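Re: the request from the purification team.
They wanted to know what the chain is likely to look like in 3D before they choose a buffer screen. I agreed to run a prediction and write the result into the notebook, where they can find it.
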Amino acid sequence: MAVLKKDVAVLKDDVAALKGSDFERTIREKAPAYLGRLIKKCRGISIEDLAHTLDDALDAEKITDTEYEDAILIDVVVKGLFKTDKRPVILAVEVSLTVDLRDVERAYNRANVIAKTFDMETIGVAIGKSITHGAQIRAEELNVLVV
């Protein structure tokens, strides 16, 4: 019975990881559908383009090694124009099935690094199917958008 319980626990963890990975992929592939109410002309920035630009910023000493290592882990990055006033913006998006405090803070921190890297207004965004109360409060404090 103990072996069975252990196996079930491992399966639960594996399925949770797969669900999270699949949700992140869906957001990346359909970013305009999820972020279109915030920006128009939504276009993804590939991880390769992000890495290249982060490398340039690191070489120019705009960012530190630590900032690079953190920012490169962002889930989704898109650029577009704010719907309200048409100004250009980058959205740095953290994706999680349940958005918690850590997701909000990561979105905020990574958006700040990406803003320095691209020399462009960048806003942190947390996307999830649900959000914890603490994450909602922290998002309001940090001006991180929650979708």
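For the purification team: The CA atoms of residues 3 and 100 lie 32 Å apart.
Please add any questions underneath this entry.
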